[in-house]
Amino acid sequence: MEQFLGDLLPALQREGIEPAALVHAHNEAERREKPFPLWRVPSWGRLLYAPVSPAYPQWLAKMIQSFHPDLLHIHLPNPSAFWTLALPAVRRIPWIIHWHADVVASEIDTRLALAYRLYRPLEQALLRHSAKIITTSPPYRDSSEPLKTWRAKTEVVPLGIDPGRLPPPDAADLAWAEAQWQSGILRALCLGRLTYYKGHRVLLEAVARCKDIHLICVGGGELLEELEHQIRQRSLQDRVRLAGQLPERQRNALLASCDVLVLPSVERTEAFGLVLLEAMAYGKPVIATRVPGSGMGWVVENGETGLLVKPDDAAALAQAFDTVREYPGRRGQMGEAGRARLEQRFHIRACARHLARIYQTIRG
Description:
By secondary structure, this protein is of the alpha/beta class. It folds into 2 domains: 178 residues, Rossmann fold, CATH 3.40.50.2000; 182 residues, Rossmann fold, CATH 3.40.50. It has 14 helices and 14 strands. The strands form 4 sheets. Strands 11-10-9-12-13-14 form a 6-stranded parallel beta sheet, sandwiched between helices. A 4-stranded parallel beta sheet has the order 5-6-7-8. It has a two-stranded parallel sheet with strand order 1-2.
């Protein structure tokens, strides 16, 4: 969500929209100067994957008083957004809801099912009072149980990225990235938090079934120790590296130098997969899972821009790795097709233009 907003707000400026943002402050990387007003609310950590920010209502009221917005664009899921229901100054402003994902009652982390009983009434109140609801793909719109009641005011606006944010790495960063990979074998990259729905356990099992593949996973998370244990148990130390969090330039250098990006998520919590678009920007083929109701299977054209496999299926994922390894020519064709699809459908300018039209309709 953060990367998307970082691309979207400047694109909205180019459409004649004057944006501002109220976000959770998580790390120093967010301290870079922005060409628009930006309020960063301190966070005290996370509870069930959501930021805890007791000061959020005060910051929201301050933003309203200072910026005087004509419209609020609220991004969910985010429990802090529920404060919009309690502040009279906010309720007087029309708002749209950008529905990035359902709060999925996970079969993997069962705590979420209990928490959602408390979350749902407030979620539905936000949806009830919204002027418009934005979803990111037709499959997610059609499969979302919380949005069923509000289908008449729901519109699909695909996520997008600015390819200009992903320039070719300079010589030093590219040399660093090349030194991270083993030579002569398939280079597979996985970008994303080491968390319950991302499918890293299945990914490691798939690599164990393959030969001639080197996997680098970029990202931190609560499954780090468990995955390190799995790597040792499966004797994958020479072929798998958990790189942790990396600076953006090194992360992008790995993306520019890999052979394939893999997104092995196993639940609809992975609603779209913005990292798929980043891979397309670098002309890389992708392997993703065909999770029912997720946008991943809509973003990726199976056999054209990448390969789709059954979720939570290590054998199917291993077979996909074998395919992209054995046919390098097809790998290049899929990467170039992905680059073209990004330009045609998922460029941030298309997203910004669509949203600008919605804003004008709501304002009248």
